[in-house]
Design a protein that fits this description.
With 128 residues, the protein is mainly alpha-helical. It has helices at residues 12-65, 75-80, 122-127; strands at 85-89, 96-100. The longest helix has 54 residues, at 12-65. The chain starts with 11 loop residues before the first helix and ends with a helix. The relative contact order is 0.10.
Length: 128
Amino acid sequence: MAPKYHPTPLSGGDRKALTKEIAKSRAMTGILAERSEEKRRVGEALIREADNLACQSWNEKMWSDGGPAQPSPTIGQAINGGFPWLEVKCSRCRTSSSVDLAAINRPADTPVHLLEGRLNCRKCKKAK
């Protein structure tokens, strides 16, 4: 974007006033940019905390009741909330294993419960 052109006033007092206003505007630009970055950091921390709480809630529900798995946090929420690994049991042989959510070839907005039918152990995948 091209810089804004301010026509220079003819009188000395108006030129001084314009120069002063431009200096104030430039100073406010820096202040507002700093505040924006600060608010963004705070917002990202709050989102991370909300994702962590959603994952903890889902973990407790799955542990205490065994389900239902729906609704579940998304893969992106789990990774952002500090839960990059998913502990699963094979639906065929009941073997437990851990899955790295970052390595799964699915969009980040995919709910974790949709992975349920696709996760089998290596032994059962070879048997198919």
